[in-house]
Design brief:
The protein is α/β, with parallel strands linked by helices. The protein folds into 2 domains: 2-315, Up-down Bundle (ABC transporter transmembrane region fold), CATH 1.20.1560.10; 328-408 and 519-575, P-loop containing nucleotide triphosphate hydrolases (Rossmann fold, 3-Layer(aba) Sandwich), CATH 3.40.50. It contains 20 helices and 10 strands. The protein has helices at 2-12, 16-32, 35-48, 54-101, 114-156, 158-205, 207-212, 216-268, 274-283, 289-315, 372-379, 402-406, 423-428, 436-445, 449-453, 472-486, 502-515, 551-555, 560-572, 578-583; strands spanning 334-343, 346-356, 361-366, 387-392, 395-396, 409-412, 490-494, 520-524, 536-541, 544-549. A 6-stranded mixed beta sheet has the order 6-7-8-3-9-10. Helix 5 runs antiparallel to helix 6 (158-205) and helix 8 packs antiparallel against helix 9 (274-283). The protein is elongated, with a radius of gyration of 35 Å. It starts with a helix and ends with a helix. 35% of the residues are buried.
């Protein structure tokens, strides 16, 4: 338990001072909580001596009222410090882990970690935020009450105090066993929670595919199994806690019985006065209440600690730009020098070398899996190369922080992701400091201002997660507006017109023309007709550059580019006819 307090203080970081002050206030409140005991002793003594007067009643009442008011003030200060600090700590941690996520290798998010990441940030931190400070309060009150109670009993009668102190020691040993059970089983519970989160996320994100293939029942079954497994482990977790929790609380029942028995016997033996005996009989029935509550919060604390373990493991993930520097480039060319790269064991690129001059256009062409997207990902440091160098402006990207590198680069993906926010904020994401007029200007260049203005709420229209309320072409143009607003000198374009209709293609081509003016452009080409004007075309096959040159140079060679060009030209003339459908 005390280890939990120490851990929370460490987790609090610069806010630990406030928590320590809160502990002092809590201890003072626990002291004042014993005032009724001494007031009862005073009243009992006066009553038995038949010397009690109205002034005694006023005195006791005044002392009790002052104690209550002081406790109210201390409790208010304590809750303000402790709960407010808890929210500050978790707000700070969410921002900090968000910053770290930007610097994680992308492979971390594709290796089955999504459930753990989601659970750690949305469940574990929330649990600490809402329950952690309350648990700290109970722990401090429990141990403070235990110490003060034993001290009071020792002061009143050393024999009773000694007996109760010994029994309390055995209770603490039982509490230690209770915590061992929690440590053992809480980690498994966290694993089940992560599996459940991952199963639900997978089901929700893939619901369109699941419905289209009529697999709703089968996939729902896997989610149902994950829910049942989480339920079974939660029940098992609670069942494992019951026996040690019962033993722990039984010790305090025994301590209460021993106190009552000894007080009564000592009174009849004449070694304990009646006022003291009566006071003990009153005190013993509430002195153990705070410390008994430790049994009920032990399971919560163990789950909380397991959650903190999972969260802290995220902070231990090696980030890409550890030790890197903030840099401002003086030129904007891109170069690969003998680069090799593998996703785990599967080698994707082998000894790739090329140079993209500043303010030129380079196209990457090749079959699916040839390494085109990997090259783009290495430029922006979504992953790091295992061999060779990637340079931007003559600087090895590994020597730059992710933020300073990405300040110079804008990417437009074929599959656009927009946030559950207004169109205005989605465009402004490219430059958070931009004014409204700048956002509108970028939208006009991206050929999306007209359809935005036609919406009922215009730029304040909330578009839903992933941009689900917009068409593919509209989303694409908003993403280009975002890139235009960023105004980065290097553009990486996963050809945006590959999967849109002809009407949208025209608008998008116009938007791209605005985006790439005077920029260093790297295009992942899906339609060869869009890269005929490229300064150089790199043809990739199985992770290697097998051809390079301009369109005219490559089309005149007997190589993969010419063959791919002729296949695409043939595909463009393909059409469905009545004869072909009848033959089918």
């Amino acid at each position: 338990m005390l280890r939990f307090v120490a851990r929370m203080l460490e987790f609090a970081g610069p806010h630990a001072r406030k928590l320590k002050l809160a502990f002092v206030l809590s201890f003072m409140e626990s002291l004042l909580a014993n005032m009724p005991v001494f007031a009862a002793l005073y009243v009992f003594a006066k009553m038995i001596d038949r010397t009690i007067t109205s002034s005694d009643a006023w005195l006791v009442g005044g002392v009790m009222l002052a104690a209550v008011l002081a406790r109210c003030v201390l409790r208010r200060l304590f809750v303000t410090l402790e709960s407010g600090t808890g929210y500050d700590i978790c707000a700070q941690e969410r921002i900090a882990i968000g910053e770290r996520f930007k610097r994680f290798p992308m492979g971390f998010f594709t290796e089955g970690n999504l459930g753990n990441v989601t659970s750690a940030v949305s469940i574990d931190l929330l649990f600490v935020e809402e329950q952690g400070m309350g648990a700290l309060d109970k722990v401090i009150n429990g141990f403070a009450g235990m110490l003060i109670g034993c001290a009071v009993l020792l002061a009143v009668d050393w024999r009773i105090g000694l007996a109760v102190t010994v029994i309390t020691g055995f209770a603490l040993l039982s509490l230690d066993k209770l915590q061992e059970v929690g440590i053992k089983h809480s980690r498994e519970r966290q694993k089940q929670q992560a599996k459940l989160t991952a199963a639900v996320l997978e089901y929700v994100r893939g619901i369109s595919v699941i419905k289209s293939l009529n697999m709703t029942g089968e996939k729902a079954k896997s989610v149902h199994e994950a829910i049942e497994s989480a339920r079974d482990h939660a029940i098992d977790y609670e069942e494992k806690f019951n026996p040690p929790s019962f033993r722990y609380q039984t010790w305090f029942s025994l301590a209460t019985a021993v106190t009552v028995l000894m007080a009564t016997v000592l009174y009849y033996n004449g070694s304990l006065s009646m006022p003291v005996m009566l006071m003990l009989l009153v005190y013993v029935f509430y002195m153990y209440t705070p410390v008994k509550s430790l049994a009920t919060i032990t399971s919560m604390i163990r789950v909380m600690e397991a959650g903190l373990d999972r969260y802290e493991r995220l902070n231990q993930v090696e980030i890409l730009d550890e030790g890197a520097s903030e840099m401002r480039l003086n030129r904007y060319d891109v170069e690969f020098r003998d680069v090799s790269f593998a996703y785990e064991r599967d080698e994707v690129l082998r000894n790739i070398s090329f140079h993209v001059p500043e303010k030129s256009m380079t196209a990457l062409v090749g079959a699916s899996g040839s390494g085109k997207s990997t090259i783009a990902n290495l430029i922006v440091r979504f992953w790091d190369v295992q061999q060779g160098e990637v340079l931007a402006g003559g600087v090895n990207v590994k020597s730059m922080t992710c933020d300073s590198l990405l300040n110079h680069i804008a990417m437009v993906f074929q599959n656009v992701y927009l946030f559950n926010d207004t169109i205005y904020n989605n465009i402004k994401f490219g430059n958070p400091d931009a004014e409204f007029a700048e956002v509108v200007a970028a939208a006009k260049k991206a050929r999306c201002h007209d359809f935005i203005a036609a919406l009922e709420n215009g730029y304040d229209t909330v578009i839903g997660e992933g941009g689900g309320t917009l068409s593919g072409g509209e989303k694409q143009r908003i993403s280009i507006a975002r890139a235009i607003l960023k105004d980065a000198p290097i553009i990486i374009l996963d050809e945006a017109t590959a999967s849109v209709d002809p009407d949208n293609e025209q608008y998008i081509q116009q938007a791209i023309s605005e985006l790439i003016k005077d920029k260093t452009l790297i295009v992942i080409a899906h339609r060869l007709s869009t890269i005929r004007s490229a300064d150089q075309i790199l043809v990739l096959d199985h992770g290697q550059i097998v051809q390079r040159g301009t369109h005219d140079e490559l089309i005149g060679q007997d190589g993969p580019y010419a063959r791919l060009w002729h296949k695409r030209q043939a595909a463009r003339s393909w059409k469905i006819t009545a004869e072909s459908t009848a033959a089918g």
